[in-house]
Amino acid sequence: MNEELIRQSEALAPRLDGYRRRALIAGVIGAALTGFGYVSQHDQFFQSYLLGFAFWISLTLGSLMILMIHHLAGGRWGFAVRRLLEAGTQTWPVMLVLGLPVLAGMHELYHWTHADAIDEILAKKVAYLNETFFIIRYFLYFAIWGGLSFFLVRWSRAQDAAVETWPTQRTQTFSGPGLIVLVLTGTFASVDWLMSLEPHWFSTIFSAIYLIGGALATWSLTAIVAVSLSRHEPLASLLTNERLRDLGTFMLGFTMLWAYTSFSQLLIIWSANLPEEITWYYTRLHGGWLYLGYALIAFHFFVPFLLLISSRIKGRLKILVSVACGLLLMRIVDLYWITAPAFQHGSGVEHASAMPHWLDLSVPLFMGGAWLFVYFGQLKKRSLVALNDPRFDYAALAEEAHH
Amino acid sequence: MSQTRDTHGLMVEFEKPEELLEAAQRTYAEGYRKIDAYSPLPIHGLGAAIGFTHTNLPIATFVCGVIGAICGYGLQYWVHVIEYPINIAGRPFHSGPMFIPVTFELTILFAALGTLIGLFLLNGLPQPYHPVFNVPAFARASQDRFFLCIEAEDPNYDTATTRAFLQGLGGLDVTEVEA
């Protein structure tokens, strides 16, 4: 059985190479544009760069999160997409490198790095918000995420080769504390990279919105890749229409969770109307940003919600893939709505334009190319189905699928 | 009681859920459509096996949810904007975000009630009398036995051949169900 699965997976290598090549082309085009932007649009460059980085690292974190949730909770959906998630976690080295310009551009992005911007309030935050600690934390996060990914993949490999069940048991034990560590580091990371753009402002649910959004983006990407791989063995037997619909159900769940947390933040801050909190929304609920906010409500919540709520509609693969693509796009729009207004200072908020710069498209394209290049490369390296996992019986599931 | 009693159908008893599932599939394949299966526990795939593949219940849930949302928002709008506007700390009368939690709660409430009422209506409940209870062994349908019934209304129903077919399914007793 195992040899058969490995052989079938190897037969798909040219297909994955094709995806890889396309990712590489997109990445190179994006890199060229981004490089040109660095030279010609220096002010805008780092703002767009942060947007692209925040989006793609959230897919790495989302992969780690969903993979560990699967190891803890089980479920047939997880066996079918385990390799996709594992490949997603292995993108951390490329994100570590791609994030370095954010550190280099600290002075352009975070005004708490300027000594003359430190007022009475920021002075109290200096113990945490200072350049050295910021850089140390950056590497600490990646060390932890890399460690999580390393062990999860290492034991997954060990299980592929072993008949004994210790690697699976170890992964299960590891995933509980691992998930806690991931959520904590993800929380601090989003406070560092995104919330501290406006260092006077604070929201305790902010990081939850970011991490849930990352998981939603991961579900969407996983659904897209899963649908395209579901036409061929070995995954054709696992990724039945029923399993693909499960992915749609998870997308629905995380769409609602995103809406719930995002709305909670708005409601609490809007109704309290306190000067130190409301400024963040004041900018975002005026000018072009208000309309972008309405677009988020419509296309990040209502449209995907109504399409995914019906099992008959989300069972149609074309619709499922379209919704997933739309959600990925809306994730970038949401992050744009969160980050970009932070750079508009001074008066004229009421008539601010929410028009994105072309760099806001080219940087995500560049990083996406790099991310997906690594992702499909990792996917190619191993059997597309987990081997020897004591919790799941490929042969039985495959037989069931053919009935 | 009349002298000649009508027949509701023929019923066969099983000891295991797998036996019932297999028997249901074979009965459906044989061409019987007016069939029903009784089990003390949910059996995955049994609904599909007896030809129950479609339900309108989600539509009832959705429609009631939408009505709930409209009622929730509408009620607050009517109270706070039209009928009894009060200035609360200078906030606008029409405070959209503040209306959402109640709208959300009423959506859930109406959807849940719609599901419950829809469930009763679509199942034809309450139903104080059902012929299958005339079979004494059926008391165990809520404990540890599994039953399959082919109803006399089925066009393929014929007392002799249907009885022979049911006996061939490998269950325990085949009983005639009095209407």
Record the SSE blueprint.
The complex is a heterodimer of chains A (403) and B (179).
Chain A: H1 2-11, H2 13-40, H3 42-73, H4 76-89, H5 92-98, H6 100-104, H7 106-109, H8 120-125, H9 131-161, H10 166-193, H11 206-229, H12 241-272, H13 275-284, H14 287-309, H15 311-314, H16 317-339, H17 359-381, H18 394-401
Helix pairs in contact in A: 2-3, 2-17, 3-4, 3-10, 3-11, 3-16, 3-17, 4-11, 4-17, 9-10, 10-11, 11-12, 11-16, 12-14, 14-16
Chain B: E1 7-14, H1 17-29, E2 35-38, H2 46-49, H3 57-83, H4 96-122, E3 146-151, H5 159-167, E4 174-178
Antiparallel strand pairs in B: 1-3, 1-4, 2-3
Q: Key terms for this structure?
A:
heterodimer, A: about 400 residues, mainly alpha, 18 helices, B: about 180 residues, alpha+beta, four-stranded antiparallel β-sheet, 4 strands, about 45% helix
Write a short abstract of this structure:
Chain A is mostly helical and 403 residues long. Helices cover 77% and strands 0% of the residues of chain A.
**In what range is the share of β-strand residues of chain B?**
5-15%
Main pleated sheet of chain A: none
Q: Give the oligomeric state of the chains in this entry, treating copies of one chain as homo and distinct chains as hetero.
A: heterodimer
β-strand amount of chain A: under 5%
Amount of helix of chain A? over 70%
Topology order of chain B in helix (H) and strand (E) letters:
EHEHHHEHE
Question: Quick check: average pLDDT of chain A?
Answer: 90
The gyration radius over C-alpha positions of chain B equals: 25 Å
What fraction, in percent, of the residue positions of chain B are helical?
40-55%
Briefly note the structural class of the backbone of chain B.
alpha+beta
How many DSSP helices of chain A? Answer: 18
The total of helices of chain B stands at 5
Low-pLDDT stretches of chain A: none
